[in-house]
Amino acid sequence: MKPEGIIKSNWNEIVDSFNDMNLSESLLRGIYAYGFEKHSAIQQHDIFPCIKGYDVIPQAQSGTGKIATFAISILQQIELNLKATQALVLAPTEELAQQIQKLVMALGDYMGASCHACIGGTNVHAEVQNLQMEAPHIILGTPGGMFDMLNWRYLSPKYIKIFVLDKADEMLSRGFKDQIYDILKKLNSNTHVVLLSATMPSDVLEVTKTFMRDPIQILVKEEELTLEGICQFYINME
């Protein structure tokens, strides 16, 4: 039976709570400390296949908890003792990359995981030194910036095993197709790909068919939005 809020999915294994997902104790501690007490429909459905290494396509609007879904999945899969970049996350804007970084760091607060967002306009030399010396477990950035880092060999794809495209439809509509394809070609063929998109236009479908292997797909109702991290209020003007 599908969780409430799921319209369509080709994955039937449902997990009832964060405690049942075989997550590390330090990650669970971070999840609950952040304030997540009950998972959303997409988290209930998608975290487990992500952790198991399947390629996954969560198709949902903003506010469904999909960012936390891949953040938790990444944190569970990285090897903390390996000082190397193991997860690469693309976002359409630097601002979104920074927001994701904050969430990842908060959820992984008790793990000792390192996460870095590459931001344009900063000291490039210092950025490169940081990547090479620190080798953060998780790196986030825009397609253009991440392609440059890989192309100039400032960032090694050797140990990258998880690649996430957040808001894939928006990135492709902004003209990042060539950079995204070039990045995917530089990664290992067995890299686990997670593609998040609100819509599935032809260019997004082309990416899924070209670079993803039998992906697990989940479609969430718009009514299931959790408005994650958003406070709503009104002011009575009478």
From TrEMBL:
Keywords: ATP-binding, Helicase, Hydrolase, Initiation factor, Nucleotide-binding, Protein biosynthesis, RNA-binding
Reactions catalysed according to its record: ATP + H2O = ADP + phosphate + H(+)
Enzyme class: hydrolase
Gene Ontology molecular function, alphabetical: ATP binding; hydrolase activity; RNA binding; RNA helicase activity; translation initiation factor activity
EC number: 3.6.4.13
Residue intervals of the Helicase ATP-binding domain: 47-218
Coiled-coil segments on the chain, per record: none
Domain notes: The Q motif is unique to and characteristic of the DEAD box family of RNA helicases and controls ATP binding and hydrolysis.
Function: RNA helicase.
Protein name: ATP-dependent RNA helicase
